[in-house]
Amino acid sequence: MTANATPCWRWPTVIAHRCGGMLAPENSIEGLYRACVLGCQGAEFDAMLAACGTPVLMHDETLERTTVAKGRVDATPWQVLADTALRARDGSVSAARVPSLAMALQTCLSLGLAANIEIKPAAGADRATGETVAALAEHCWSADARWPLLLSSFSTRALAAAADAAPDLPRALLLETVAPDSLALAQQLGCVALVVERTCLSASLIDAAHQAGLGITIYTENNVERGRDALAAGLDALITDRPDRFLDQY
Fold first, then answer.
1. C-alpha to C-alpha distances, 222 to 14, 17, 30, 89, nearest whole angstrom
2. Alpha carbon 172 to chain centroid distance?
3. Which long-range contacts (C-beta less than 8 Å, at least 24 apart) are formed by 103-111?
4. Quick one: which of 75, 21, 67 has its CA closest to 48?
5. Between residues 247 and 196, which one has the greater pLDDT?
6. Known catalytic residues?
7. Strand 114-119 relative to strand 150-153, pairing
8. In angstroms, what CA-CA distances link 242 with 63, 87, 160, 238?
9. Inter-axis angle of helices 101-111 and 126-140, to 10 degrees?
10. Residue 184, class by beta-carbon neighbours within 10 Å (0-12 exposed, 13-18 middle, 19+ buried)?
């Protein structure tokens, strides 16, 4: 693989997955602080709409796996979620509570962290989630921030809605598998980058993305040797559950 850096990628090389990776409760403010203390410069986290329309940090459509509560996120109002305890990675109850997207963005700004918001719509809520998340992100993020804000999603409908709501915010297309038309689709959506599942990465994909003017990063890379080789070969960044393993090198 040949390195060919693209100016379209304007974010850190190592990005903590779901705020702090495996080192803190998933999608928590605690995770952002943990990432910062480690020296990580960027964090990725998921944004989903609560019943009242408030964007909150949550990956699953239901609450059971990551919190002490039960039920659907989109059926639970923010006032309830704000007082809902998150589970630690070992399943125990933590002191952390479900944060709103606004809280996470303000924390990133105060810590100087880059923020990659994955727009994570519940079923049938792609457009509403894309619009709401993008509008709030544009409102909350400072023009003087060290890093631009990055929106990403697997949902093309959510990305298109985000583009309508906040056309100036950079966007990335998330892909679990790469199809022959993936680069063209990202370009049609006005994206600046691809974020692909790590096993999809190849020399030809890195080169093709860069030749198309797109940045390229992968999720979720926790193997240091493999990640180091990919970065040396031209990969722009990696999203990892173990940022501590990479920060002494990048």
1. 11, 10, 20, 16
2. 10
3. 103/29, 104/19, 104/29, 104/32, 104/45, 104/57, 105/137, 105/140, 105/141, 105/149, 106/140, 107/29, 107/32, 107/33, 108/32, 108/43, 109/140, 109/141, 109/142, 109/145, 111/32, 111/33, 111/36
4. 75
5. 196
6. 17, 59
7. parallel
8. 24, 18, 31, 11
9. 40
10. exposed
Amino acid in the structure at residue 174? L
Query: Which tens digits make up the pLDDT trace of 82-115?
Result: 999 999 999 999 999 999 999 999 999 999 999 9
How far CA 241 is from CA of 15, 16, 204, in Å, comes to: 9, 6, 26
* Alpha carbon distance 96, 164 (integer Å): 34
Q: Name the β-bridge partners of 150.
A: 116
Q: Residues 249, 25: contact at Cβ < 8 Å?
A: no
Strand (E) or helix (H) holding 35: helix 29-38
Residue by residue, what is the 3-state secondary structure of 155-182?
Answer: CHHHHHHHHHHCCCCCEEEEECCCCCCH
Average pLDDT on 63-74 reads 98
